[in-house]
Design a protein that fits this description.
Elements lengths: L11 E2 L7 E4 L26 E3 L8 E4 L2 E6 L8 E2 L4 E2 L26 E6 L5 E2 L3 E6 L5 H15 L8 E5 L15 H11 L9 E4 L7 H4 L19 E3 L8 H20 L4 E4 L4 E6 L10 H14 L3 E4 L9 H7 L3 H20 L10 H5 L5 H8 L8 E5 L9 E5 L5 H10 L4 E6 L12 E5 L2 H6 L6 E2 L1 H4 L5 H16 L6 H4 L16
Parallel strand pairs: 10-11, 10-12, 12-13, 15-16, 15-19, 16-18, 17-18, 19-20, 20-21
Antiparallel strand pairs: 1-2, 2-3, 3-6, 4-5, 5-7, 8-9, 8-14
Helix pairs in contact: 1-4, 2-10, 5-13, 6-7
The structure holds calcium ion (CA).
Amino acid sequence: MTAADTPRRPLLISMHARDNVAIVANDGGLPPGTVLPAGPTLRDQVPQGHKVALRDIPADGAVLRYGIPIGYALKDIPAGSWVHERLLKMPTARELEGLPIATVKPEPQAPLEGYTFEGYRNADGSVGTRNILAITTTVQCVAGVLDFAVQRIKTELLPKYPNVDDVIGLEHTYGCGVAIDAEGAEIPIRTLRNISLNPNFGGEVMVVSLGCEKLQPERLLPPGSIPITDQRGANEALDVVCLQDEAHIGFMSMIDAIMGTAKNHLEKLNARRRVNVPASELVVGVQCGGSDAFSGVTANPAVGYCTDLLVRAGASVMFSEVTEVRDAIDQLTSRATTPEVAEAMIQQMAWYDAYLQRGRVDRSANTTPGNKKGGLSNIVEKAMGSIIKSGSSPISGVLPPGEKLRQTGLTFAATPASDFICGTLQLAAGMNLHVFTTGRGTPYGLAECPVIKVATRSDLARRWHDLMDVNAGTIADGDKTIEEVGWELFQLMLDVASGRKKTWAEQWKLHNALVLFNPAPVT
Ligand code: CA
């Protein structure tokens, strides 16, 4: 026999004592004829991450993973069969009436004290993890001009300001050609406003505007919206370069104006220094993308453990992705600290149900071909794995999309699950560190804030060794515990927040576009 022919020790992972399926953890899956530790012999080839029936499941019987029905058998499924999405009928979404409200009272966890990082303290009290000049735009029309200016700022000005990490344009597709007074239009507008005020930008707001656009600078950043800093008095006007201004004769005049304004802000940013601050100043957004069946077994539980550590340290943590928590709404409303928090969560779910209904779809439109290839049969199974990122702490707040987060502890920030839209909305909330889990693999990154990427499988971590920051696949391999990887992530977060370590996405300067959530019509 060659090594390839040697029967491999089957590695199965089940999540709950009630489960009648388990997932195959072996790289490359398992062949038919494999005798499983639980008894049955495999009847089919089962790919890695996919489910196998541990017992006979009769037609219409519940298929249980995470201890809950993730689907109902469309026909008899004998023990040892591959249980894939074509054999399952998806459960209907849980009604939003009669949910358990604030019923779970978790044991209070001991505060975690003494953990600090080196951050940039802002005049408004917030703390940045990076020192970035971010140039706000009112409209997509100015993007080409601003790109040109940013390239020149990077080559000609930035080297003179060694304490500034980067210069970026906050570009987007909003600003004109939109029904700006329609219901829902307040979401993209407040998102842009609050992103401009992200703690990583030090309050140094400057705007590039075209002139004739619907989203006028004063509407984007009305008087009083920018916190008064050490440098800025209460009456100081918004710093705007308007391309249609009659003073501009030729393209270079616009570039000179942008560069001149940028120089003033670079000087102020360059004077910022990192200071020692408590870990409670972290504002962390967690999300997942390119998920597989291991997401809920390895990376998301490790992130959930880390979420609990952050909450114990007094930090702010946001979890999001409405369509990926919808099927677990009863678990979330029961963990709410108060009936008001639970009610706010239900309202966000109801709003999103109606939003999807407008397109005649529901939350099942979320799953991708890659999710299914990775073993996730449907949105119910995906959601059970997704919410584990929120750990076990009480949920003390709900944040509507585009709003700024103003409290510590664990908050449900209601955003779409789309990676770029979720990241954009978490930036608007004031996120200064992002944690992203992936099973299929994505090179996702943000220019505005560091993104720590956590791989769900060792195979991915090996192949993408220079893109993944943490390998949670070691949990499935039996090499590390969830707690060990959770602590590893926590320590890495303090190092990355301090600028002592860069994430791989920062190393390679990989970043995705800001993508605004605009539920309102365009014109
Ligand atoms: Ca996502």
